[in-house]
Amino acid sequence: MSIAAASLCGRWRAVTQTALQRPTMRSTLFVCVGGSPNRMRDFAIFIHQELGLDGDGSDIADICAGTDRYSMYKAGPVLSISHGMGIPSISIMLHELIKLLHHAKCRDVTIIRIGTSGGIGIEPGTVVITDIAVDAFFRPQFEQVILDKVVIRNTQLDQKLAESLLRCSKEIDDFPTLIGHTMCTYDFYEGQGRLDGALCSFSKEEKCEYLQKAYIARVRNIEMESSVFAAMCHLCGLKAAVVCVTLLDRLQGDQITHSHGVLTEFQKRPQKLISSFIRKQLQMC
Ligand code: R2B
Ligand code: URA
């Protein structure tokens, strides 16, 4: 399926011109997306510095500042965009981003979601590179309701890209990383088998049984955006990866217990890996 040739609204026309300028200027473009606007600003500054661009990057401007929906920063060939939490939020952003890339005639785009997740049976701080996103029944698919029909979409991510990222991770000291399935849910509490939400209708034993089943189905982490991200990128022909650090092991509990400092370091891990990967790719061009 080709990218929809929908017309750009004025907002996006302006963004296209400022963010990407003339499409022929760049043959390689990296788009990094993540939930939090602050984290994506930090990532833009970090990648600005890592790529040795002019200045320290601290004056980087939010290209989408007027919209209040998401933030977008550009550092050289890298766009850094926030997508909020959950499937509906990232899906809106991706529709608008993919139209932007299409109208700007961007080619050779690599898009990577960086984020946080709950691990299953792995050490907190481990970075999981997703091979395929699965739903809450461990099925490798995303169900999109279109008009009155359920359309099943493929959630396979780019295997070569995942393997390149894994190779890259091996060159960084003390950087536990693996490739595995990622379960994408519609909810953080009951939807991820947590006992500590405002509502809970199952026992601790049922929760443990479900998470054990997920582990046996090769799920190594849980988050809330990977399935629609994988499905949309796959259909639109974008090379895509999902790289999430795990903040806790869900087989051990529901709440994050590490100190603020440790969690801050964990959250930088996907950024560190992607920065190293992008630098390598640019050296090869
Ligand atoms: C990871 O963390 C968020 C929930 O706390 C959600 O956006 C996700 O995928
Ligand atoms: N994000 C999630 O969606 N789940 C977790 O357990 C942690 C982060």
Automatic annotation (TrEMBL):
Listed transmembrane segments: none
Keyword presence, Glycosyltransferase: yes
Gene source species: Ranitomeya imitator
Annotated keywords: Glycosyltransferase, Transferase
Domain Nucleoside phosphorylase, chain residue ranges per copy: 31-279
Catalytic activity: uridine + phosphate = alpha-D-ribose 1-phosphate + uracil
Name of the protein described by the UniProt record: Uridine phosphorylase
Family: Belongs to the PNP/UDP phosphorylase family.
EC number: 2.4.2.3
